[in-house]
Amino acid sequence: MNRVLLFVAAMLSVNVGYGICVTNMINPISDIEWDCMFPMTIGGLVSIGGEEELAPSGQSGSFCNCFEDGSNSVGIPFGFWEPKAFIDVVQDAWCFPAMGFELEGMEGAYMNDGSRASADRSYTFAQSHYTLFPALAILDMYYDIPCLKYGDSEGEMDIALVTELLPTWNNDVLAATVYPETVLYANPAAQLACIADAIPSNGFSPINELYWCMGAWGTTYPMTGTISGSDQMEAQAAIAGRSIFQMGRMGLLKEYDKNGCYQRYVSIWTKNRYKLQLMRPTKSSQCINFGRSALIWATGLNTLDNHSYFMFRKVDCCGY
């Protein structure tokens, strides 16, 4: 409730900006590519829709059982992709394009940095905003799915991450100090290992064990808004991916367990349990896994402006 009140207060203090920040409040009906919920599996046997399965269900049988409240319950396993959150990757600070507003007058030593790129386009920097948006709950659609449950506040929209407020997002050295494991992963040897992740990521099989790799997009470390590389579409998608990874390192990322019985907070993501749909400035009709080359999915899409992505996460649940 406190977060909702803070959000309302922020909305009331909004000033309209006429820079490069183009805002348009998200319309879940038209902006979300609902086909990305598929494929859906029921009972481990029936598969509905979808051409590929990015994260196969942990339940291969026709029945599942969960121990809860002192009793063992038997049910039917369900697997599908839940539209869970959207991520704004913005060229100017304090722009919330999918929320429909821009904040002005926010001053601070590290809080006003917008996007930038080197003269030779060898790196890109952008801010990111991660907003929980459980579309099925907001639209009252989840009642048709027996095992999908939301807590008291889990079914509400919530701005969970604003990188302008993170000093580490703008400073590679500070990020390496706060997250000392950066030394292990943001080095040539660890990045060389990411070659092994690049090829399967162009299909539907990113290697979960190489959790610091994002295929053709680069790496999750250092956890800042700076991405090396000249491809703007991959850079923007990589920053969205880093935002999800950042949520995990902050203890705010939830995943369904493969047995379908519960959710748990994770500090390290399981890469193949997430996929992204480009929502703004040009809606994409497909979802992509982390690390897929822009040559495959970004042809003809707008590489400039602010980008908004919708995140789908894999749900494995036991309906009883």
Could you explain how this protein is built, in words?
With about 325 residues, this protein is an alpha+beta fold. About 20% of the residues lie in helices and about 25% in strands. It has one domain (about 1-320). The strands form 4 sheets. Strands 1, 2, 3, 4, 9, 10, 14 and 15 form an 8-stranded antiparallel sheet that branches. A 3-stranded antiparallel sheet has the order 7-8-11, covered by helices on one side.
Overview in brief:
With 320 residues, this protein is of the alpha+beta class. The protein has one domain (2-319).
Sheet bearing the most strands, described?
A: 8 strands, antiparallel
Amino- and carboxy-terminal Cα gap: 31 Å
> In total, how many beta strands?
15
Low-confidence stretches: 4-19
Shape from CA axes?
Answer: globular
Give helix % range: 10-25%
Which structural class fits the helix and strand makeup? alpha+beta
Beta-strand content: 25-35%
Mean pLDDT: 85
Alpha-carbon Rg, integer: 19 Å
Could you give the order of the helices and strands? HHEEEEEEEEEHEHHHHEHEEEHE
- Put simply, the count of helices is 9
Number of domains: 1
